[in-house]
Write a structure and sequence with these properties.
Structural class: alpha+beta
Strand content: 15-25%
Number of strands: 15
Helix content: 10-25%
Low-confidence stretches: 7-30, 166-177, 180-189
Largest sheet: 8 strands, antiparallel
CATH superfamily: q2cbj1_9rhob like domain
Radius of gyration: 18 Å
CATH class: Mainly Beta
Shape: globular
Order of helices and strands: EHHEHEEHHEEEEEHEEEEEHE
Amino acid sequence: MPSSDCSRARGLHFAASLGVESGLDHDLSVTAPVDPDLIEGFRRDGAVCLCGAFSRADVALVERGIERNLASPSARAIVASRPTDPGRFVEDFCNWQSVPEYEEFIRQSPAAGLAGELMGATRVRFFHDHLLVKEPGTQQRTPWHQDQPYYNVEGTQTCSLGCRWIPSTARRRSSSWRARTSGPGSCRGPSSKIDADRDAFGIVGWALEPGDAVFFHMLTLHAAGGVTGNRRRRAFSLRFLGDDVVHAPRPWKTSPDFPGLADQLPAGAPMDHPLFPVLWEAADRP
């Protein structure tokens, strides 16, 4: 699997444009223009890494939110690992309104603006937050999958943000993030074939440090392994919607689900609802 150090690859363009180093307490309240190479990479490959996208203060804020979330999980929380797994894989969804640290990060960090630049959107709505925690020894893999089929939305301007959140004093690399780079939505055959013949697929991955982030299209295939060593793997993901995304009620149970939303938003309607606030508009760019 081709992989790279985020701070030495394309992501460097973002931090360099601000004149800072990865992880420093820089002011990102106004989104800086994203390097055109990153925008091209996002649209071509479906995934890019931005190193130093978030400051140490941002990382610490999300860490506090994760601990609050884990101490009081929502009714949507699930244990995704098998009972026989020596570790534990826990997921939780849609907690931004009950975890103040999440809401502050979602509204005040540059995340939505970065997603908007990459998508080429004029307006960015927040969709939902997603916490994924794998305890040490967890064997459960996250199989190759696309996110959008699990959701009640349709459209081309979609973006997920994935970060690894480990103590900011520990400079160890986290696990590599993987994506298939054949482009958004181009799934050809069962995803189980990917691991059987990895060289046949354009797989990329990055070793992430706190403050680095991977932005990927909701139709990009991605996967994650289990956990070795003695550290928890904490992933906090945010999902964003651009201009052309509309409500698409599903005949199956979505993850997450939004009970009663179909009664308020008909199929094909814009996602104009308090659950999905507008966080950024193109006029906000410097």
